[in-house]
Amino acid sequence: MTAPVFVVEEVPAGPEFVLEGPEGRHAVAVKRLNPGEDVVLTDGRGRWSQGVVKAAEGKDRLVVTDLHGIVEEPEPAVRITVVQALPKGDRGEVAVETMTETGVDAIVPWQASRCITQWRGERGAKSLAKWRATARESGKQSRRVRFPEVGEALSTKQVAALLATADLAMVLHEDREAASEPLATAALPASGSVVLVVGPEGGVSPEELAVFAEAGARPYRLGHSVLRTSTAGTAATAVLLARTGRWS
């Protein structure tokens, strides 16, 4: 099994480091790590170092030694961004969690016209904070050292602007007539950015599809079944990662 991951502000080069605060408490009181066990310290932005537990002190201090220097994981050749329409309730955190575990590179909340959930004011700020915290914790749990970025919530016009900058812009669509091409056979770039839009439970409206089409996005389908918005992004990410070779 791979070593557990803990987040630090700056990755230590060694030879020894004391992990304190919430991360130290989690390592000592929750994980109950013992001397001799391996750990990974990362900034969540691709930089990391592996070391060995020397001692657990008190309730929130983990002494790590034998750090092997700083390693930097390169950016992926094909970067996958999912524009996720806001689901109801806690389904948004479920979507962020599973997409992070799968390997998505960035997640952008989208206030689609058919979204029941509305992110406004303080509620919007709290919801965004939850999504970002979920991505961080899920990144640690899945042993990633480069966590997905969770951007600010965008309007349809702003999503269209993002799609216009992508090397490949895609919109998931459940209608086989509107989306005749399956995601599994779409021509992918060898490098660059793929931006994929996942609509709300009520689907992407014709007006939104038209705006996205003007930005260069084409509709694609996943399969015969229709997935919930909170699971569609995860399934689509898995398809794309397998085809780009990142799951090979």
TrEMBL record:
The keyword S-adenosyl-L-methionine applies. It holds the Pfam family PUA_4. It catalyses: uridine(1498) in 16S rRNA + S-adenosyl-L-methionine = N(3)-methyluridine(1498) in 16S rRNA + S-adenosyl-L-homocysteine + H(+). It is found in: Cytoplasm. The keyword Nucleus does not apply. Its EC number is 2.1.1.193. Its main location: cytoplasm. Keywords: Cytoplasm, Methyltransferase, rRNA processing, S-adenosyl-L-methionine, Transferase. SUPFAM superfamilies: alpha/beta knot, PUA domain-like. This is Ribosomal RNA small subunit methyltransferase E. It comes from Streptomyces polychromogenes.
